[in-house]
From TrEMBL:
Protein name as annotated: Uncharacterized protein
Length: 88
């Protein structure tokens, strides 16, 4: 979990535990700990990036398309993922 990854990084940053001890505490392999640390330094987060467009694409029926067009006329600044949040 992301919480466990952050806990592992906190243990590492405090420097009181060795990497081997952290490995035993959290159950990660040492290489995983290094990958988490590298990912955090690069992105500022331990979570994996959300996958967009994963899975089978949905086909729009005419009513869905008309609804999206009406939404875009009302607020053209919104993106499709924001429209998706509105409809759920």
């Amino acid at each position: 979990s992301d919480d466990l990854k952050m806990a592992a990084l906190h243990l590492k940053w405090h420097g009181k535990d060795t990497d081997t001890e952290i490995q035993q505490i959290v159950g990660f392999h040492i290489r995983t700990l290094y990958r988490i640390q590298t990912h955090f330094c690069r992105t500022g987060d331990v979570a994996k990036a959300k996958v967009l467009g994963h899975g089978c694409p949905w086909s729009l029926v005419e009513a869905d398309a008309a609804y999206l067009v009406s939404l875009s006329k009302r607020n053209p600044a919104l993106f499709l993922d924001e429209y998706q949040k509105l409809s759920s």
